[in-house]
Amino acid sequence: MKLESSKLKAQSSKLKAQSVSPRWLSLSACGKVEVMAEQGKSWLRRRVETAMVKGLTRAYSTVRVDPDKFLLQLRTAYRVPISGYHGVFSLEVGELDGVADSMIRSGMKMAALEGAGLGLGGLLTIVPDLGILSAITMRTIQKLSLLYGFEFNTDEEIAELWIAAASAAGVDISRELLEKEVVNKFVPRVIQSIAAKAGAEVVEKWAGRVIPLVSSAIGAGLNYWFVRAWGERAKAHFRGRHLLVRQRAQQAVLELPGQTGVLRS
Q1: How many domains, the chain?
Q2: 12 found inside a domain
Q3: For 218-243, how does the pLDDT look when each residue is reduced to its tens digit (9 = 90+)?
């Protein structure tokens, strides 16, 4: 009996060892997979950030909306009754919002078509993809800026445009930084901040593009989402500034001598 009991204990210990060993190996394999996945994300994120910096820098230098041509487009294509951008402050805000939504949708469609075409290459085309996407996004932001009455001719106006771009990316840029630095140094720092923020979002959402055939549809959807998200945040930024300008103008009128009594009557 003692011999049989010893055999049973030995078999039980052997079974436990067999059950533990595969489980330990499985955990180790999962750990290696997780490490490899994180390393892949880190590599992809660095590449995305570099591509975003290049794309946004190129957009800053070359992709600029012509204010005169865009004003003509507003008057003819969108039927906005203004002779200059100062005129938008006399229009209903809802009318401007409708035009803004139409512009964002146009950018979304263009980005989706571009994403479907280049998406066939999977991650191999991520660099040219982001370059074009950056241009589409920056042009949309510039159009929204002009629509709500903010031109970008002076250094200060250009800096404000990039603050709006940062806001669209979900990055909070301190205006103290703008006051301390000239535009040529300020803009590259903003671009770097935007690229870092966007890199994290892009990596999470573009992971499916490793498969070329699937990535065509995914690329279209993600580009569509990208422009929509940035466009809506940029719209909120410019709309808020627009309302603030209106509020200050109304306050200035109220403070004029004799105007308070006239308005009350």
Answers
A1: 1
A2: no
A3: 556 677 778 888 999 999 999 999 99
